[in-house]
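tool_call predict_complex ligand=iron/sulfur cluster
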Amino acid sequence: MTTAHRTCPICDAVCGLKIDLDPAGRVTKVRGDADDPFSKGYICPKGASLGRLDEDPDRLRHPMIREGDQWREASWDEAFEAVDRGLTGVIEKHGRDAVAVFFGNPTYHTMAGFMYRMPLTQSLNTRNTYSSGTIDHMPKHVACGHLYGDPFAIAVPDVDRTDFLLVIGANPMESHGSLCAAPDFPRRLRELRERGGKLVVIDPRRTRTAAIADEHLPVRPGTDPFLLLAVVNTLLTENLAKVTLDVNGLDELRELAAEFTPAVAESVCGVPAEDIARLARELAAAPTAAVYSRMGGSVVEFGTLTQWLVDVVNILTGNLDRPGGTMFTKTAALEVFRSGEPFQAGRWKSRVRGLPEALGELPTATLADEIETPGEGQVRALVAIAANPVLAAPNGPRLERAFEDLEFMVCVDPYLNETTRRAHVILPPPRMLQMPHYDFLLQIVTVRNYTRFSPAILPLEPDQRSEAEILARLTLIAAGAGASADPAGLDETVLGQLVGAATQIPGSPYQGRDPAEVRAELDGDSGPELMLDIMLKLGPYGLSLARLRENPHGIDLGPLEPRLKELLCTPSGRVELTPPPIVEDLGRLRAKLSAPTPELVLIGRRQLRSNNSWLHNVPSLLGGSNRCTLHVNPADVAKYGLGEQAIVRSATGEVIVAVEPTDSIRPGVVSIPHGWGHKGSEQRVAAQNPGVNANALTDELVVDVPSGNAVFNGVPVTVSPYEP
Ligand code: SF4
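tool_result ok
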């Protein structure tokens, strides 16, 4: 038996794991790594199932090529040649914008997913770049981009030091934190209470987080910006604000918030005005406080406004960028994703609906339009990497139909699932334990400065290809270099750019040195590892891959420290409290005040044993609370005469789903978890527990306007009893 140490790659919490393997390389046990200074031995049921997930017999082992309705195994060379023919054919016939690329959520969790994203996007040179970002967190990027100039300046709650944590539309007891990496969130919340702190949760559901909170305010879905504006209103009218940062727009903010009194907010949110005003006063009075919001305040009609207001409240209470408030993590690797240039969104618009670009991406909500609508620039081919948008995107069934019409589609994915079955070629990456691991992106949202590298635990089999090689070869094909171009050549090009820049950066340890000499000193067994090595050496702690290897449990780099001044890159050099694109969107919010309130709306829900659709093929993660049911308040069960099953209808579709009455959800709201609806998948366990696709009900035509983000929460629906 051998024991290996590795970061869990499943969710944002980045827990350290201790993995026992038998001589055949099979995982026999997974425990939390007690020596990891950040996660300290914590593990959740998903992490404990990593071995089963990794060894899933339904994972594809060979490239697959589809001929008509039939799939057959292919060699890597044959598969890449088919990709070359497919992509090159579409580019030659229709131009580069005719190829779309979609990066799914797992690409944020792998080294290669991060490292090759930019080279692949640049090689494709298409305006049709999409990702799970616009069905998740794009509103946060857009809000922070406008406030601070840097869309990656995302402040995390300093949960270990705060005196008051206000959680809006997030459920870290089950999600374990998202855009906020805090392994063992339950312990951290417990400790907050034990040191006399207060936890308040605003959520339409009494989630597990709400259940342990000091106070739960059950809000109507999607109305958080009204509540937060009323908090701003109270802070400013009662002179409770204590702004400590250099800001522009405080007077304009005061004027904008004037009409959104707590009484106005109550009429929309359903939260009593006196509770909203009291909340504002408590936030202002707390020695330190942090407001944190995730999916419930992001995948909503006013996601950007909500995320903007979260930071505005943190700024007004003097809590942004200070211990105990919300703070910016300082990553170990050079932050190559920060451009240093002021953020701009909408540099181009989508062809059909004119939706804005953000971070170089178009909204996923318009991908089907771009495929279906004829004309110059129509999408005719798709490269999908670790993505299952048929289940994850709004109006997934429409997207599935659109995929059928593509001239070519290639997926990098370990499964034959609801999306990849529409592809012409599937390129399967190896198992997780066969890949080195480093969290480039998640380490920008850890609640302590921390870093950890995990080498591959198991070698590749001769007939496997690393994820890095797969993505590098796709990049070379997209660049017109053909199917047989050497991926090492791409790595050297990228390394050459990094090394070249390093020798020019003033103050860099390599300034003025010979690039060839610097390149020769780099350490690593693969392109991504070599790139990581130089990024660590150029990072603020002067680390290296060798140092990380010497510390297999990770390195604690200390508590978060104020660093906004370093990140701020607005043209004015000040925090912009009232950026014009945000102020403009307030008009849309104002119009809601006179709009009718839907009688019943749909929201999603996070489940402890699930994350996204790819976790539904592991028997140990199914059952218990991890069931795809419709949560309905008993009052609504009676009101609509529901029995065991219900038909839920929306503007886009309908599903028949099992009813689970529960008083944990407020009346007027029903909930279906996301990622279900397994149909036509070769994932046998998932196929036996298919659930329903909540995204058959979500409407791709409704988006958060500034970010183009999809709206999954607050979808108007009707329910009626279903008798089979
Ligand atoms: S909380 Fe997330 S990172 Fe930690 S063990 Fe569970 S799935 Fe893995």
